[in-house]
Structure to design on (902 residues):
């Protein structure tokens, strides 16, 4: 009797195995189908990530805001017929950013090109051996300050850190002309800055420490804290607070202010420290990824991004970026590059301070 | 259980074994990988350097305390709103109940960051309230820990509501009826119904605690400094994966301690129920009806009507929303499609894990619960980087990594633990005896599981599917990292285009996102669920 039951049990178990095996088969087929499907639609599958250099596609990771960068990449597709696979992100908020994706993928890169909207991340990647040198012919004509002597990156179309103020609350002649004016007791509780550990705000503070030395910089931030500075998550938050009149002034980026200007908000901008330490100019940077799946296609895309044509498009877009090639017409309302002195002459030096400055500022600003 | 020696492993053992293996592969391995990374020093050798600096300065301890307070306050607020709502939905006769249920899910669908923006628009120093009153009374209170607790509490209470309602449906009606013979309805509610649903309510509170603990967008916007930001600083400012993972460990420890406390307080009240056709206790509101309706109105106004109106006013013209809709077609499709697959697979795996957990020994069960809550507390960025490290390899893994399948993998890695935790209560209440009866009757295990166990979990399963779907659809942290080139999901699209758009467009996009996710949920709500219990 027991033996008989045992047999029945085994038989039913066997039936189950069959059903489970069938299930497993169906699932794996579905998986394979999904993968092949992706391949057909042309998304890089990277099976032979490091060999197919001549492919008719290129993968780019872009941290310049998508609204500005996407039309440029679409134009390249139209012009050349090369398919551009883009991953967009923004360093604006506390996103972990594409730099982390590139670092995590270092052993098996998926991207060919990294287009960054500010210098710091590119230099972090250079330090971590994610990039490889490429000397583009189109880099000629871009001032040496905006090019890496070792060719790991090339700068193009620059933004600047700016002081933004609310025109209903501050008269143009009273607007701060230097970031050091932000410690004026008259502005107590009326200044907003983005968290200086992230995004372009982190570039600004690192560049400041590199430019004026630790002691003076520490002193400046202590005074700023004593003046009850509001530290907010991002540059667009700074702009919106100023536009709403929650604070009178703030530190943000040219393109952020321009968005508010196009939207007819009561704001205006000042390029700070034109007289003293110089204007904190931030170029876009483009780099070739080491062991990229499509290095040749990547180089062609870099050549395109460094062309005067792209600088013109970025200048005329709402990004209002300052062209670095001489002779390309700049955006309206923005002073040309030749009219002021940039604060940073060595981006590598500024980037080296990033980590140390982040740690220093935590106790000073109470982050 | 009736089991005879067999040379082959049983179907049950194989199925559960596969489920556990998948769970380890998808959810546990990425975390172990990252922990491994955190023990590697600069020169590539073993080092505890990343852990040496933890919590030694007063600043970090203070941040951790703020985070814990934020979590506890949010869990308390969300539970004290959500649990009564759930109970009322399950046990009273109310008009328009389905509509109400869907309306109360809306706050969970609005990304917390957007809710915070809406609150700032309402109560900030230049918000609507201040401009109506002509003076600023509320901004000091908005930009504070209290403000953050209120924003997160009103965002997360639907979780407690859904869990409580599902649990209240499962309570055996006969127990309550027996109680009603000798005691008043109030006493029956207090002494029978509530104790039986308490573990589920506590589990939901614990999940809300962890969600609030993981939040850094809302506290950042409301200028509250929390410990979680430290983890993101290590990633986005210092680019140090090892340090970031080490910094997540104190958060996991807090989740573990709170999890143990919750277990000690509620314990495990194991009272098996039969399939419940009707509840024994129907609360007759009588003169309390007005009070209940007032409570509903206040909650609805504070969590749905006011924030959405603030966003709608800010968004201004309808054409902004229509424009946003027109350009986001692929992202919307991807979001819905991937979240549907993600939520379904999450539930499938979680059901098996929850079943295995419920049928294992008490000690193991407790450990599994704690493991699940700790895994859920791992920051999404740590999970994302871990997934890249594991899946970006030649061969099949790499093929998955470079396709959209990896986004589903990320959903599973993030949400299987929490779904299993939520489902555990549902399985626990199904008596082993029904399975044994089926087995005696000749049904094999698979048949017993699909025909007897699953149908009894139906309400719980539906609630967990909805929550998983909402979580998957809103997932950003890990998706941003693993998403392959090409159009990603709607939240990623919204996120990558909001940085440089005016607040009005952000509001329009947020409303769009809420609308998109509500439509399938509303359809689901109207066509299924709610047949049982009190209409």
């Amino acid at each position: 009797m027991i033996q008989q039951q045992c047999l029945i049990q085994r038989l039913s178990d066997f039936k189950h195995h069959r059903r489970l095996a069938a299930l497993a088969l169906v699932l794996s087929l579905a998986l394979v189908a999904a993968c092949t499907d992706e391949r057909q639609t042309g998304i890089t599958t990277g099976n032979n990530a490091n060999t197919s250099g001549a492919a008719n596609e290129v993968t780019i990771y872009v941290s310049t805001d998508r609204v500005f960068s996407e039309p440029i990449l679409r134009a390249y597709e139209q012009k050349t017929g090369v398919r551009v696979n883009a991953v967009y992100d923004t360093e604006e908020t506390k996103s972990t950013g594409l730099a982390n994706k590139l670092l995590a993928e270092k052993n098996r890169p998926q991207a060919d090109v990294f287009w960054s909207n500010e210098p710091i991340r590119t230099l972090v990647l250079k330090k971590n051996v994610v990039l490889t040198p490429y000397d583009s012919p189109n880099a000629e004509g871009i001032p040496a300050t905006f090019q890496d002597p070792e060719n790991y990156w090339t700068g193009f179309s620059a933004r600047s850190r700016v002081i933004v103020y609310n025109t209903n609350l501050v008269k143009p002649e009273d607007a701060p002309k230097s970031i050091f004016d932000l410690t004026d007791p008259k502005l107590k509780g009326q200044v907003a800055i983005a968290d200086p550990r992230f995004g372009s705000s982190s570039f600004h503070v690192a560049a400041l420490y590199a430019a004026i030395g630790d002691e003076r910089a520490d002193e400046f931030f202590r005074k700023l804290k004593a003046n009850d500075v509001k530290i907010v998550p991002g540059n667009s938050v700074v702009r919106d607070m100023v536009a709403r009149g929650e604070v009178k002034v703030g530190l943000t980026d040219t393109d952020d202010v321009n968005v508010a200007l196009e939207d007819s908000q009561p704001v205006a901008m000042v390029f700070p420290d034109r007289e003293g330490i110089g204007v904190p100019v931030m170029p876009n940077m483009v780099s070739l990824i080491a062991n990229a799946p499509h290095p040749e296609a990547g180089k062609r895309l870099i050549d395109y991004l460094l062309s005067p044509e792209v600088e013109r498009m970025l200048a005329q877009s709402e990004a209002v970026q300052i062209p670095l090639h001489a002779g390309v017409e700049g955006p309206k309302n923005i002073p040309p590059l030749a009219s002021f002195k940039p604060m940073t002459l060595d981006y590598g030096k500024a980037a080296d301070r990033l980590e140390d400055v982040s740690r220093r500022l935590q106790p000073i600003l109470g982050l | 259980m009736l089991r005879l020696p067999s040379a082959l492993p049983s179907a049950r053992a194989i199925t559960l074994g596969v489920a556990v293996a998948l769970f380890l592969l998808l959810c546990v391995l990425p975390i172990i990988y990252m922990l491994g990374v955190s023990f590697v020093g600069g020169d590539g050798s073993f080092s505890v350097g990343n852990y040496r600096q933890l919590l030694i300065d007063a600043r970090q301890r203070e941040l951790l305390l703020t985070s814990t307070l934020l979590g506890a306050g949010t869990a308390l607020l969300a539970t004290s709103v959500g649990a009564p709502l759930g109970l009322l939905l399950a046990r009273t006769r109310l008009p328009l109940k389905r509509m109400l249920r869907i309306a109360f899910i809306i706050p969970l669908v609005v990304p917390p960051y957007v809710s915070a923006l809406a609150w700032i628009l309402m109560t900030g120093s230049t918000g609507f309230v201040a401009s109506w009153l002509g003076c600023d009374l509320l901004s000091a209170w908005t930009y504070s820990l209290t403000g953050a607790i209120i924003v997160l509490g009103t965002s997360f209470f639907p979780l407690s509501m859904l869990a409580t309602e599902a649990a209240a449906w499962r309570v055996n009606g006969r127990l309550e009826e027996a109680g009603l013979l000798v005691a008043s309805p109030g006493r029956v509610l207090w002494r029978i119904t509530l104790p039986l649903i308490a573990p589920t309510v506590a589990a939901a509170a614990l999940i809300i605690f962890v969600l609030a603990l993981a939040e850094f967008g809302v506290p950042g916007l409301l200028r509250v400094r929390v410990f979680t930001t430290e983890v993101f600083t290590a990633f986005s400012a210092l680019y140090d994966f090892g340090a970031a993972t080490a910094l997540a460990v104190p958060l996991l420890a807090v989740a573990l301690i709170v999890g143990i406390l919750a277990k000690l307080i509620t314990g495990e009240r194991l009272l098996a129920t039969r399939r419940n056709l009707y509840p024994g206790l129907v609360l007759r509101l009588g003169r309390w009806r007005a009070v209940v309706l007032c409570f509903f109105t206040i909650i609805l106004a504070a969590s749905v009507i006011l924030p959405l109106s603030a966003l709608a006013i800010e968004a201004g013209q309808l054409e902004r929303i229509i424009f946003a809709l027109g350009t986001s077609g692929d992202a919307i499709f991807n979001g819905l499609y991937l979240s549907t697959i993600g939520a379904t697979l999450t539930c499938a795996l979680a059901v098996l894990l929850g079943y295995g957990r419920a049928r294992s020994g008490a000690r193991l069960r407790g450990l599994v619960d704690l493991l699940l809550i700790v895994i859920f507390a791992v920051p999404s960025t740590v999970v994302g980087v871990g997934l890249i490290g594991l899946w970006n390899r030649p061969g099949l893994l790499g093929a998955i990594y470079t396709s959209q399948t990896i986004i589903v993998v990320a959903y599973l890695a993030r949400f299987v633990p929490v779904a299993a935790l939520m489902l555990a209560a549902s399985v626990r209440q199904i008596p082993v005896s029904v399975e044994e009866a089926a087995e005696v009757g000749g049904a094999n295990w698979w048949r017993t599981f699909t025909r007897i166990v699953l149908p009894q979990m139906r309400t719980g399963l539906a609630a967990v599917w909805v929550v998983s779907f909402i979580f998957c659809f809103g997932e950003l942290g890990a998706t941003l990292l693993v998403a392959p080139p090409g159009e990603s999901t709607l939240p990623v699209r919204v996120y990558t285009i909001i940085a440089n758009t005016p607040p009005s467009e952000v509001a329009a996009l947020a409303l769009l996102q809420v609308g998109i996710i509500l439509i399938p949920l509303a359809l689901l709500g109207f066509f299924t669920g709610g047949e049982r219990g009190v209409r």
Remarks:
- Residues 57-157+283-334 of chain A form a domain with the D-Maltodextrin-Binding Protein; domain 2 fold (CATH 3.40.190.10).
- Confidence is low (pLDDT under 50) at residues 32-54 of chain A.
- Residues 132 and 284 of chain A are 17 Å apart (CA to CA).
